[in-house]
Amino acid sequence: MTTVAMLTYDDAIERFEPVIGLETHVELGTATKMFCGCPTEFGAEPNTQVCPVCLALPGALPVANKAAIEATIRIGLALNCSIATWCRFARKNYFYPDMPKNFQISQYDEPLCVDGWLDVDVDGEIVRVEIERVHLEEDTGKTLHVGGATGRIHGATESLVDYNRAGIPLVEIVTKPVVGTGARAPQVAKAYVTELRDVIRSLGVSDVRMEQGSMRCDVNTSLSRPGEPWGTRTETKNVNSLRSVERAVRSEIIRQANVLDAGGKITQETRHFHEDTGETTSGRSKETATDYRYFPEPDLVPLAPDPAWVAELKAALPEPPRAHRKRLQEAWGLADAEMQAIVNAGAVELIEAAVAAGTSADGARKWWLGELARRANEAGVELSAMSVTPAQVAQLQGLVDEGKLNDKLARTVLEGVLAGEGDPAAIMAARGLEVVSDTGALEKAVDEAIAANPAIADKIRSGKVEAAGVLIGAVMKATRGQADAKTVRELIIFRLS
């Protein structure tokens, strides 16, 4: 029996050209829902934030949320889109088990924002991702499948529906096909979603918390052999972290390449990304636009944004994130490669917040890109998901700067912070971890180290002061790492001079 070797990622890229596209859904942070006055607070008891409108009871009519329309226009402007002078909502008909009216109010052929672009930095090279449309719609409810092992409907014994999310304003940002990225396609996808999240957060229209579902990304991927038409695309649904966006594209490229290389065909379908394995599995066949039977929403009037109002919104846009990062780079005195490392780690805002809390950029960068980045990578989570705040990092580095902690002790204190024991100063005091710098308390340990290492002491007396490191290490061990190394060295040299 012959075993066929699976293609690696490098093999796949050598034989096929990837085309990607991203559809990103962003829940707006409005006080009320898109077409009714129900609150939008996250985490409320199931089915407590509903009314006749969002439950689609007979006779209830929708009214569009002006704040949501304004937020969508601001997003479109920040993405360099043209804003429609006239547009309208449509009904998207589909079997929605988590939408009471069994259709979604969305926009189809007349979206609010079109033809934009967003530049992203990928390893020092700017890649322009073109935006096809930014449109406004309502979110669906949430279905919880219980009784199974995976949390999905297959194998579940029952399903529960929470309609609180149904009707929350949802913006969908759709890119045009992104071509020519080759082996960097996964990195481009991640860089785009990262930059998009930063743009939206800077506008203050959403918290864009992927772990809570307020930002979700559908990743489209297709492969073709060089010179051939684009291949059939798949859509990996609801990818919920920046790291997973990159992994989903990479996984789907490998999967499709192996199917095509074996003579198979790619099915147009939705797929699910599994965080634990990094692989995708089949969902359902993907519908085309005609399958949704779009038609104009009869209960809502068209939208006609006043051009003067749009101009006011454009003039009031905040500093773009890329310009903001450039300003921070200059203020922090960093080289391009150093700033890019911060961007790649998703640490710009974390470091900026730590600096605002009172530490230096170098001090904040040391922790976020060092110990915390290592732990986040081991846990497979985003850096921002670590259970430590920028203020706590600033306090930790402040204790180091004051000489109360050395880096080794600070790492121990950080473990306590991550374990939920409190702020660094409280943990240092509770565990008795403060550096011992009092010469009286250190003299005994120094004398004992000299007595235990006479040969080393003789070397130092003869002028070989570099040998003092051995004695310093002995003192540090005796004091459980709490001795101030500089003070210990001075005491050793003084004793043996």
Automatic annotation (TrEMBL):
What Pfam families does the database record attribute to this sequence?
Answer: GatB_N, GatB_Yqey
Q: What does it catalyze?
A: L-aspartyl-tRNA(Asn) + L-glutamine + ATP + H2O = L-asparaginyl-tRNA(Asn) + L-glutamate + ADP + phosphate + 2 H(+); L-glutamyl-tRNA(Gln) + L-glutamine + ATP + H2O = L-glutaminyl-tRNA(Gln) + L-glutamate + ADP + phosphate + H(+)
Q: Which ranges carry the Asn/Gln amidotransferase domain? A: 349-496
Similarity comment: family membership: Belongs to the GatB/GatE family. GatB subfamily.
Q: What does this protein do?
A: Allows the formation of correctly charged Asn-tRNA(Asn) or Gln-tRNA(Gln) through the transamidation of misacylated Asp-tRNA(Asn) or Glu-tRNA(Gln) in organisms which lack either or both of asparaginyl-tRNA or glutaminyl-tRNA synthetases. The reaction takes place in the presence of glutamine and ATP through an activated phospho-Asp-tRNA(Asn) or phospho-Glu-tRNA(Gln).
Database matches in HAMAP family: GatB (MF_00121)
**Subunit details:** Heterotrimer of A, B and C subunits.
Q: What is this protein called?
A: Aspartyl/glutamyl-tRNA(Asn/Gln) amidotransferase subunit B
The gene designation is gatB
